[in-house]
Amino acid sequence: MGVTMPFWDDSTNINQLTKIKEMKYFAYGSNMDKDRMTKRGINFSSRQFAKLADYKLLFNKKASKGDYTYSNIVNSDNDFVEGALYEFPDNEISNLDKVEGYPKHYDKIQVTITDKDNNSIIAKSDKIVTGLHPTKEYLNHLLAGKDILSNEYFTYLSKTQTCD
Asked: 123, 91, 101: which is closest to 30 by C-alpha?
C-alpha cells in the first residue's frame, strides 16, 4: 500500500498547503534579537528594519519580580521607535503571548510602520513605573538588533542606563 504525498514545486510555500497565514510583528524590545525569537519558537521567514513614527521607547514597564524594567512604547509626537519587522506563521504568536505575559502585561495594537524604503506596512505589536532601569542582560537583547538599526538609534539605545 502506497502513501500519496502532496505535490508542490519550489515556488509553493508549505504554509499555503496547510492554510497557515503569515503575520507581521513589529518588535521594538528584546524580540529584536533574532536568536531570542528563534529560542521562543518563532520560525520567521523574514526580519527587516522598521520604524514607528509618533511613538517613543521608554523603559517603564515594571518587572513582576525585581526592581527593574522592560521596554514599552508610548504615543509621542515627532518621536520614533526603530525595530525589527518579522514575518512568521500566525499560529506561532501564542509562543510570544506566553513569554510576554499577554494580555496581563502587554496589549496588542495595530500600528502603521515604514520599512527602510519608507513604504507603509501595518503590523501588530500595563504596568508603568518611573525611576527604574532595565537590566544589562535585557538591554543586550535590544542591542542585538544592531544589524538592522540605524547607527544613531543603536547609539541612543547603547546609552541607556541599566540597574546593574
From this structure: 101
User: Residue 65: CA atoms inside 13 Å, Cβ hemisphere, count?
Assistant: 1
Contact 23, 88 (CB under 8 A): yes
First to last CA, the chain: 64
d(CA 47, CA 85): 5
At residue 7, the pLDDT reads: 45
* Alpha-carbon gap, residue 156 to 122, rounded angstroms: 25
Residues near 113 by Cβ (< 8 Å), separated by ≥ 6?
Answer: 26, 50, 51, 52, 83, 85, 120, 121, 122, 123
**How much of the chain, in percent, has pLDDT values that exceed 70?**
84
Residue-wise pLDDT tens digits, 44-54: 999 999 999 99
Q: What is the pLDDT of residues 58-91, one digit of tens each?
A: 999 888 889 999 998 889 999 999 999 999 998 9
C-alpha to C-alpha distance for 164 and 154, rounded to whole angstroms = 20
